[in-house]
Design goal:
Elements (H helix, E strand, L loop, with lengths): L4 E10 L1 H17 L6 E10 L3 E4 L7 H9 L3 E4 L7 E3 L3 E8 L1 H4 L3 H18 L5 E3 L7 E3 L2 E11 L2 E9 L19 E2 L2 H5 L5 H16 L2 E5 L4
Parallel strand pairs: 1-2, 1-12, 3-4, 9-11
Antiparallel strand pairs: 2-6, 3-5, 6-10, 7-8, 8-9, 9-10
Helix pairs in contact: 4-6
């Protein structure tokens, strides 16, 4: 049986606004072509070029918090994804799959589980066997009591957007200015911290793509960025 195809678009280091604009492009493209086919959408990947705090549908950042975070030199944005506030920045792999779940035979819940499984598999491929998903409200992937990968998605008319943020060599001090994902008493970690060496986004990309194809049971087709 032929596996569904997903377009791979790697933006490299890019502003968060560029990723959101490209996501909107792919959302319109999929919404305009609802007919069944072998292509299921696009996998949009980037490393944020600068620090960004984002809020989700379950809660954003107050005007006072926004002012405080912007004073640190960070961008602050509201988003349409699920979840609460989190941080994106250099050293982090951002993955936004814009997918028609019907073409992959997935429901929203299994899509989120597949994102978690993808991040767990990536950690395994990098030699970290203790990574695991946890039940709600602890969405994401964890090493012990610290989160290494945050997940927040949006889904409308069976088409997903947003996705996951995997800490590779992220400066974790940025997370100290918020309560990440609204979870008090938990911390964050990164591949670099867990493996005790510098692990860049470029280094983990091949393993991540393997993990994505395994968990989503699809074939990735490279496509140049439209920039």
């Amino acid at each position: 049986m032929q596996l569904p195809a997903v377009r791979l678009v790697w933006l490299g280091r890019a502003r968060y606004s560029e990723l959101l604009a490209l996501q909107e492009h792919w959302l319109r493209r999929l919404q305009a072509d609802p007919s069944p086919g072998t292509e299921a959408g696009a996998l949009l990947l980037c490393e944020p070029a600068g620090p960004v705090y984002t809020g989700g549908l379950r809660g954003g950042l107050t005007p006072e918090e926004t002012t405080r975070l912007r004073a640190l030199g960070a961008e602050v944005r509201a988003t349409g994804r699920g979840g609460l506030a989190t941080f994106h920045g250099p050293g982090q792999l951002l993955c936004h799959p814009v997918l028609d779940l019907r073409r992959l035979g997935l429901r929203l819940r299994t899509h989120v589980a597949a994102l978690e499984a993808c991040a767990v598999r990536l950690c395994e491929l990098r030699g970290l066997r203790g990574a695991r998903a946890r039940p709600p409200p602890y969405t994401g992937v964890w090493l012990g009591e610290r989160k290494i990968c945050a997940i927040g998605v949006r889904c409308g008319r069976h088409i997903t957007s947003h996705g996951l943020a995997l800490n590779c060599s992220t400066d974790l001090t940025w997370f100290e200015h918020i309560v990440p994902c609204g979870l008090v008493g938990t911390g964050v970690t990164s591949l670099s911290e867990a493996l005790q060496r510098l692990v860049t986004v470029d280094e983990v990309m091949p393993s991540f793509l393997v993990a994505f194809q395994e968990t989503f049971k699809c074939t990735l087709i490279s496509e140049d960025s439209p920039r």
